[in-house]
Every structure is written in structure tokens, then in C-alpha cells.
User: Fold this.
Amino acid sequence: MWPDRRLTRGLCQATCVWGTRAQARAAMPAWAADTAGSAGRVVAARGGVAGRSGETARRTGTILLPARTAETPLRKAEMTEAAPPTPVVDESAPPLWTLLAPLAAHLALSLTYAFLLPLWGAVPDEPIHYSHVKYVAEHWSLPVIDDPFRDLKEYYFVADPAGAAQHGPLYYWPAAVIYSLTTGLTLTAQQYVLRLWSVLLGALMVFFAWRAFALLFPGRALVTFGSTLLLTLIPHRLLISAVIYADIGAAATATLALWALIWAVKTRPGGRGWVLAGMALGLAMLAKTSAVLIIPALVGALLVLWRRGTLGLRRAVCAGLLYAAGMLLLSGWWLVRSVMLYGELLPTEPKPPGFGWLDVLFDPSFGFVLWMAARGYWLSIWSQVGWLPGWAGQPVYGLLLALTGITLAGLIAAAVRGASRGAATANFALAAGFVLTGLATFYAALHRTILVSFHSNEQTGKHAQTVLVAFIALAVAAWQHLAGARRVPVVLAGAAALMVIFNVLSIYNLQTDLIPRFAPTPPEMATWKVRDLPTSGIPWVKERPATPNRYLINGPQSRHVPAEEYGRDVGRGVWGVGTADGNGGPRVVKGSRALIV
Assistant:
């Protein structure tokens, strides 16, 4: 038994820095081998390792560890001897260029999309999020899903602030401040300014991801750079970073929460550290409650560490409780508000009462619906469906499908190998948690498609944008297992190059085909200053076609509408509002098609 563990660990670390590795290994006891090492590298020391002079310890059951690195947990006998020392993790940042290059790519592409994509509903849900921002700026309160009356100034185009009332205030309240400062601009100019708010949040997401990857892959600058660049270039992430969309606030703060979770699991801090990590998740919950999908990552990591004897049961339970306390410290009031208003902890838009999985599970069409949900989720992880030119869709998605299949095969093989080992490192535990979070994200997509809104099956990939760090970390683990650690940067470069091709083809198709064919016609109020827009109470959204001054809401019809479409009955659905008929009633016509199908 060593009399002074702190002194011994310090001497071991100093020896690792200034002396030889053989001297360091000969000097340290088994319990100190977990933490000693220069630049945060952990040496596997189960008993005497002095005989391995000059040899780097072999991987033992890791999935996400850097090459030629291993973490070895304490033996149970050593855990009962004394409290294990806190693992030493290299938290130093990699070279700055590994961040600046992805940030430059983000700004270049997100600004391109921000000024390329038309306004006025070309991007589905953007009008809803804009109306939510306006509601907050006008009333400095939050809209309610079932509120029956609205103000005309909230309806600049077909939208309803209540459509996003279930989302937290983190994205909308800063945007409302921007709105209040820009009322002297035209309605068109103001929306472009608000899009820049999303571009800024997208840049923060890139930074948080860079820090998370630096923790996962210490000492591997090329892997950190490639992982961050791949995340940056995913077209769907760039889309939500370029328009007025609360999902980018959720993705940025959820990435912060993942960074905090990785730090907590790898360093195993004291109580304050777990509370801070939970507060990061609470912040994400205030952006969008779908951030709750990160909780399975924590649960999975703690369970693996406990089951493998790396972390005691009491410490694992305390860590989970402190994490939950930190989350509720920031987001608890929002959850209580949802229960008081809607009777649900995580409310969504209204759905048929009593409609649940048992109602659809044995339906003859369930298999088809399940396939469409899975297909739409996978397609929309990469981009909004329909952006690629027709001739490019099959080869590009074919390459992505092959890459997905290879990645899944490698991940399964790596997991089997890691599970066969006795050791459970922090990275192996995080990998297990990331798998659970990925499955939870897929379930959220199925739930929305099957129980809430089937027509949005090709938009559910936006849920995956909040956990891109987890998905890319798992992909790196799979590629490292299949191709070796040295080839991982090459695979990352190939995947990033494919994303560049995807973006170039999408921008080309938007500019030359989709926008000329389907861009909405701006309404009359597009050139008005925001402060000069009219005010008048109007009924609930279902009666919007019969409201006074409805042309101010929807604008003149698109020039692309065929003549035979005019005069369609109101009762057959509302795509847009045309000129009034002889009795003053509206005529419903087929309006402009959304650019994102």
C-alpha cells in the first residue's frame, strides 16, 4: 500500500514527462497506471509492466480510444482498497487550424444557403418559427398551442405561432430582441437578418463539436479535424443553420450537452461537475425538448461502467441523480409549465385522442408505414429529400448507403470485440451510450411519422442533427476497427469530400431548377417596413381563408399556377388564397410548391 497516493501519482506523471517510459512504468503501482502519462495518454498496467520497456500498451476492449492507447479500470480488489483516483484526460485543444477550417466552411456554405433559399414559405416551418419570434417580440410572452385568437401582424405569410409553441424559449427570445431592433427594416430584410442568428448558432455548434471530438480523440488532430469537418458539411445541418429555424438552437445546445457528457464520463468529476454537465442538457431542453434523447447516452455509459466494475454502484447512481438535478435546475420550470398547460411533459401538436402504437401495430399497412418512416429518416439525415438533381440522386445515395452498411458492420464487429474483453473504458461506455441515443432518435422519428404526421416522414432526419457528434464518433470507431487507426483520417476525408459534392450539386439544382420553378411569389407587404404593418384581430388558423385583408397574409398567387387550378372549392384543402369571388368569398387555388419536399 502506498502511503501518499497524490505524491506518488505526481512523481509518476513527472517521470513520464521527463524520464523514459520504462522508468515510469517500473515506478508506478497498478492503481496509478490508470492516470499517469504524458499528453493525457493512459498506460495499461495490470500488475507489473516494467518488462515492456519502450512498448506502447495494447488496446484492451476500446471502441473510441485513440490509436495505441488504452484505459484500464481498477480491479475490484483495488476499488475496495481505496477510492480510485480521478482519471487524467488530456483536455488541451488541438491545433487551431483544425477549428478554423471547419468554421470557414460553415460560414461559406451556410451564408450561401441563407441568401439562396427564398423566403415566404419556401422552407417548410420557417414561417411558423418567424411568427413565433414575432409573437414574443410583440407580447414578451410565449404562445400557447390552443390559443384561439391571433393578431394579423403575426401572419406575414401562411403561418401560426402556436405551431411551434411546444418549443422552449432559448432560440426565440434572443431572436425577438433582434426583431425589436430591426423594425425599421423591410419585412424581407428583417428575415435575412434573423437568418444570420441561425448562422451564428451553427458556428457555435461547430465549436462545441470540435471540443467534443478533441476529448474523444486526444492527440489525434487529423481525426478531430476530419470529424468536425464532416459534421460541418452535412447539408441538412447547413440548412437549419441558414434559415429561421429553432432546430439549430436545439442542435447547438445539444452538442454542448454531449461535450459536457463526454467530459463528465471521461474525467468522472465530483458532484459539481455532474451538476454542470446536467445543466448543459437543461439548456438544450430549453431550446427543444427533443434534447431529452441525450439521456440514454448517460444511462448507457453509467450502466456499462458499473457492470464492468469500473464504477461503483453508489457512485454511478449519485452521478445520474446529480446530472438529473442539474438538468432540472434549468429546464424544470419549462416541464412544469407544459404539464400545467397541456397535461403532458413533452407536448407536440394535436393528434387524434387515444391514438397510440396499439392502434397501428396490427394494421395491415403498418409494415409499409414503418418502411417509409425508416427510409425517410435515413434520407433526411443527409439533406432535405429532393435537393439533388434527378440524375445524381441514385449514385450519391448509393455511395452513402454503402458507407452506412460498412459502418454498421464495423460497429457491430468492434462492439463484439469490446464486449468480449474484461475491461470497460470510458470510451467503450460512451460508445454504448451513443448507440442507445441513436436508437432513441430513430424511435422519435418513427413516433412522429406514425403517430403524429405521416406526411413529414422525409423531414425526421432533423432529429439526428442534435446528436451528430455521437453518430460520427461511432462511425470513427467502426472505421478504425475495419481499416486501422492510421487510415481513419483518409476515410473521414473521403466522407467529407462526398458531402462537398452533395452540397455543390444541391446548390446547382436549387439555383437552376427548383427555385425558378417553385419559388413563392412575395406578398405585397414584402417591401413594407415592419413597424408599418397593419394590425387587426383575426380568427383561428382554420378560418384564415375567410379573414379580412387575407391578401396581406398569403400574397398574390404564384405565376406558376396552371389556369385550370383556379376556383377550387375551399372545402377541398387550402394551399393558398386567390382573389375573392363575386360574393366576397375566397377562392382556393394550388399555390407554390415547397422547395423542400
